[in-house]
Design goal:
Blueprint (H helix, E strand, L loop, with lengths): L2 H15 L6 H21 L7 H13 L9 E5 L7 H7 L4 E5 L3 H13 L5 E4 L12 E7 L4 H8 L3 E11 L1 H7 L7 E6 L10 E7 L7
Parallel strand pairs: 1-2, 1-4, 2-3, 4-5
Antiparallel strand pairs: 5-7, 6-7
Length: about 220
């Protein structure tokens, strides 16, 4: 058995043990994504996590734990880096459109390589800063993982949110506590728990636009 086959078997076994609803084809694509990330990481330093075991935990399982939070058809991943959490979610949510936003060119090249190699037609890559992405139709769900402090993130990416949009930020517990109460009255923010909290190493913050009160 080749190294790639052994890698695929390890990923498959771990995802099966996690009891997630994933088809065999999706599982194969998730393993291929992690394989490509391992290969590129040896040269381009896309992520500080090196071992396959930790990559499965932090990059696949943690990303997939956010799946129940998704709503709507248009999903954005701000500061996606090596494609996290957007790429794993895009692989298993084929009926939704994912926009991966990444300012660093080498990481954007990696994302486009993965998208092309795995034929992920529901994923697009934008090589720009979130604040420079043109304002158009709001995204239904916006994701971010340890990109910036939540108030700063909202300043940079708030224009991507409509009145019904949801921004989910995966961050450290201490950072989450510090973020509460620091946003303007234009936004509501609170910590939430995901159904598979056992797969998430930090905390998840939900940010939404506050409903505007009507005038009498």
């Amino acid at each position: 058995m080749t190294k790639r086959e052994l890698h695929g078997q390890e990923v498959s076994e771990r995802l099966t043990l996690a009891d997630l609803e994933i088809t065999p084809t999706q599982m194969e694509r998730l393993a291929d994504f992690l394989w490509l990330l391992n290969r590129w990481n040896q040269i381009h330093n896309l992520t500080g996590i090196r071992s396959t075991d930790r990559m499965i935990n932090r990059h696949l399982l943690e990303s997939l734990a956010l799946r129940p939070l998704l709503s709507g058809q248009r999903i954005a991943d701000v500061g996606t880096g090596a494609g996290l959490p957007g790429l794993p979610l895009g692989i298993v949510e084929e009926g939704r459109q994912f926009t991966l936003i990444e300012s660093r060119a080498k990481r954007a090249r990696f994302l486009r390589h993965v998208q092309s190699t795995l034929r992920l037609t529901n994923i697009s890559v934008k090589n720009c800063r979130a604040e420079d992405l043109p304002t158009g139709q709001p995204f239904d769900t916006v994701l971010a993982r340890a990109v910036a402090a939540v108030p700063d993130l909202v300043t940079l990416a708030g224009h991507l949110l409509g009145i019904d949009s949801k921004l989910f930020v995966l961050t450290g517990t201490r950072q989450a506590e510090e973020s509460l109460g620091k946003l303007s009255a234009e936004f509501n923010v609170r910590c939430i728990k995901v159904p598979r909290q056992d797969l998430v190493s930090g905390s998840v913050i939900l940010v939404q636009r506050a409903e505007k009160k009507g005038t009498s």
